[in-house]
Amino acid sequence: MSASSSAPLRVALLGCGVVGSSVARLLVEHSGDLAARIGAPFELVGIAVRRLGRDRSDVPVDPSLFTTDAAALVSRADIVVEVIGGIEPTRDLLLSAMASGASVVSANKALLAEDGPTLYAASDRHGVDLYYEAAVAGAIPILRPIRDSLAGDRITKVIGIVNGTTNFVLDKMDSTGAGFAETVEVAQSLGYAEADPTADVEGFDAAAKAAILASLAFHTRVDIHQVHREGITEVTAADIAAADEMGAVVKLLAICERVSRPEGEAVSVRVHPAMIPRTHPLGSVRDAFNAVFVEADAAGELMFYGRGAGGDPTASAILGDVVEVARHRVNGGRGAGESAYADLPVLPMGAASTRYHISLDVADRPGVLAAVAATFAEHDVSIETVRQRPGAPGESGDDEAAGATLVVVTHRAPDAALSATVEALGALDTVREVVSVMRVEGE
Amino acid sequence: MSASSSAPLRVALLGCGVVGSSVARLLVEHSGDLAARIGAPFELVGIAVRRLGRDRSDVPVDPSLFTTDAAALVSRADIVVEVIGGIEPTRDLLLSAMASGASVVSANKALLAEDGPTLYAASDRHGVDLYYEAAVAGAIPILRPIRDSLAGDRITKVIGIVNGTTNFVLDKMDSTGAGFAETVEVAQSLGYAEADPTADVEGFDAAAKAAILASLAFHTRVDIHQVHREGITEVTAADIAAADEMGAVVKLLAICERVSRPEGEAVSVRVHPAMIPRTHPLGSVRDAFNAVFVEADAAGELMFYGRGAGGDPTASAILGDVVEVARHRVNGGRGAGESAYADLPVLPMGAASTRYHISLDVADRPGVLAAVAATFAEHDVSIETVRQRPGAPGESGDDEAAGATLVVVTHRAPDAALSATVEALGALDTVREVVSVMRVEGE
């Protein structure tokens, strides 16, 4: 078989945490299959770790492969697999790996979203591959479909549930009626949320993934600082109940949208919680699963669904990249590099076109609806539906006059106009409280 | 830009029906984007059609590009896009295209499932690409994820809803309660079924796709003649109602399964209707949509969802292949060729492990259940649930004694044992009729 006639490909692994040890184990377990699929055997030449001496008996490799000298390791590899994360020293290591001729497979969404172009430029300069399927949505093949399968189409929208922790929390809030804080505790106790859940619940993780998805989908550089970001910490049980009443669920969405304007196309990239109909393909994504919904001119609606995190699922995506990069080593060629030719402007959040669901506690007297409707009209925001219900949801001991609840769902409007409308509503003396404000997606 | 400095890539299009005219239109409309993504412009050098002189004003190309001489056309192309279909003369044309150095993008599932290895060998021999994403599940990127993204994993199962016509028919039967024949007429009137729907409703189309999926997933040659095939023509409204009672729907499934046996691994590849839980990701695939569910050791469960047919969706998949093949022309390299190293045996249907849902009209007297249960036991088939209900579903004018309905769902067993059980049940004198037999998937 040709596999044995080629020189072995030297693979270096940087990092040996949950994902790294899965990668090492699968490389060993599947070595025969991988060699047959690549057309050459490979050799694991080292695993860079922070400290030696830890018990790593779950990683079935010769213990002498562990090293703390990552810089020396990358200089003697054909393929460098990076699962350390973080910005530095990782960036330096990857740049030096590529400079010495190695192809890189990385799961580092933070680095790619912060400073991808530096890495892409290095990969072009040195003629090596830089693959990072595992950086977005774990095991789900999503970057390769966007970059390659849809390369002949025009993508108009990508909406992803790309953070498993927040989907788990929101799904549990939906099924139990519990609040945010107690549900996060449950998620922590089950291992679905970190002790410090900030990166997940504040949307930083999803924002990095949104930047990567938008860059690929729109052939435009988008970095994490251009992504509008709102987390789920302020989502209340009342918001979830309000969504349920209109047949919707609340999800943390990473939204990448192509926007047509008279002055030319632009893109909007944002992460925020939103209500989405239960009948939408993303509406039934439960637990910690991820899914990415894509709309393209010719293809229509597509959805990709699977596990977004965890050692083995992430390792699956990494090994797929390793095989493809290795095939290029054996057969020649390179994968597609960065494509940023379209160079579309990234809109500020205020210019994004969104819909709002607004729930108001109002005084129950004539003229209230007229005042509310006038406020929307003043801001050029068109109302889709209004529902009025006697009895405010406030405390029963309330000593004010009887109230009513007014639920308004708008048509699409610039986010700035919607946000100004909410502010103006709050100032109306007939509005006792703005109970809940949430965007609506997926019409 | 580098796009303009490279020589144009010559693209020949074979066929100009629904899909072909979408391909031509999108090639023209997106030519600027495609050139930027490829790194070189391309030139449409001709469109082979059966007859000249037809009105093709919907295809925005110079009419002089149409030709009936397909053989001459392929000899002057770098990339040949084939959407003619059928076995001959298509096979000869593609072989001659590859022999003259052209890469091929084809949507021809029948040819690939009938005689793929001849084409794969030609592509290897001449060092050209052979891509066919559009052959399975239309716009859904599924072959590339299986071939590349999951190349480092071990796929254990692929279950696809890969025929839009049958999914439309079964979904309508489910939502309306109507029978097969009248629903096919509705599908025909709406353009979802051909005047002669045989290829779809008898499962030939799905079987070709199953062969292609299994070949890629298991690195094993599987041709259409090795695929067990049952269509949906015998699915009744009673079957659909029986599925509904257990929270399931009936779908025509293309099932590709890796089977572990003491004597070594094997694969089972089959197309048949089956009940699947409504809560399964495939259970909510409505209308003419397609979806492919994949299980792999490390990745876990994945699903890919989208439009499986139609001019533009199919053209989207074709153009994605064209861009990738063109990138290889510009940057060097080739995509992965055929991978059949695993060479696993393909099991006959009788050896496949399945579950049955059996509905029996029985005499309502003591001892019936015991006789039925004994019949299952004699065939080593284990029962999961039995539900007994007085009152047979037969005509009210029935002059026999009162009957009862017995619904049995089995555990997994060899299909041959299940099928022999059903035959033996039919011969019991306490069983008046075997009302419905259907396999169950997706536990």
From TrEMBL, chains A, B:
Where does the chain bind NADP(+)?
L14, G15, C16, G17, V18, V19, G20, S21
Describe its function: Catalyzes the conversion of L-aspartate-beta-semialdehyde (L-Asa) to L-homoserine (L-Hse), the third step in the biosynthesis of threonine and methionine from aspartate.
Q: Which GO terms describe its biological process?
A: methionine biosynthetic process; threonine biosynthetic process
Is Transport tagged as a keyword?
A: no
Binding positions for L-homoserine?
E194
Catalytic activity, reaction form: L-homoserine + NAD(+) = L-aspartate 4-semialdehyde + NADH + H(+); L-homoserine + NADP(+) = L-aspartate 4-semialdehyde + NADPH + H(+)
Classification via PANTHER family: HOMOSERINE DEHYDROGENASE (PTHR43331:SF1)
Full protein name: Homoserine dehydrogenase
Positions of the catalytic residues: K209
The record ties this protein, via Pfam families, to: ACT, Homoserine_dh, NAD_binding_3
Main EC class of this protein? oxidoreductase
Residues annotated to bind NADPH: K109
Write out the pathway annotation from the protein's UniProt entry.
Amino-acid biosynthesis; L-methionine biosynthesis via de novo pathway; L-homoserine from L-aspartate: step 3/3; Amino-acid biosynthesis; L-threonine biosynthesis; L-threonine from L-aspartate: step 3/5
